[in-house]
Amino acid sequence: MVLLQPEKAFPDKEKNFSEWYSLILERAELVDIRYNVKGFVVYRPNLMRLINLIRDELEKGLTETGHQPVLFPLVIPMSYLRKEEEHITGFEAEVFKIRGEEGEEDLALRPTSETAFYPMYSLWIHSYRDLPLKLFQTVTVYRKETKATRPLIRGREFLWIEAHDAFPSEEDALKQVSEDIRITRNALEKFGLAFIVVEREEWDKFPGAEKTFAFDCIMPEGKVLQIATTHYLGTKFSIPFEIIFLDKDGSKKYVHQTCFGPGLSRMAAAVISTHGDEYGLVLPFEVAPTQVVIVPIPKEGFEEKVLEKCFEVEKRLKRLNLRVKVDDSEDRPGSKFYKWELFGVPVRVEVGVKELEEKKLTLFRRDLRKRWTIEDSLLEQEITYLKDDILKVLRRKAYERLEGALVRINCRDEGIEASKNGKIILMNFCGRKECSEKIREDTGGYEVRGRRVDVEEKVWGPCAWCGRSAEKVVVIAKSF
Amino acid sequence: MVLLQPEKAFPDKEKNFSEWYSLILERAELVDIRYNVKGFVVYRPNLMRLINLIRDELEKGLTETGHQPVLFPLVIPMSYLRKEEEHITGFEAEVFKIRGEEGEEDLALRPTSETAFYPMYSLWIHSYRDLPLKLFQTVTVYRKETKATRPLIRGREFLWIEAHDAFPSEEDALKQVSEDIRITRNALEKFGLAFIVVEREEWDKFPGAEKTFAFDCIMPEGKVLQIATTHYLGTKFSIPFEIIFLDKDGSKKYVHQTCFGPGLSRMAAAVISTHGDEYGLVLPFEVAPTQVVIVPIPKEGFEEKVLEKCFEVEKRLKRLNLRVKVDDSEDRPGSKFYKWELFGVPVRVEVGVKELEEKKLTLFRRDLRKRWTIEDSLLEQEITYLKDDILKVLRRKAYERLEGALVRINCRDEGIEASKNGKIILMNFCGRKECSEKIREDTGGYEVRGRRVDVEEKVWGPCAWCGRSAEKVVVIAKSF
Question: What is the CATH number for A381?
Answer without folding.
Answer: 3.40.50.800
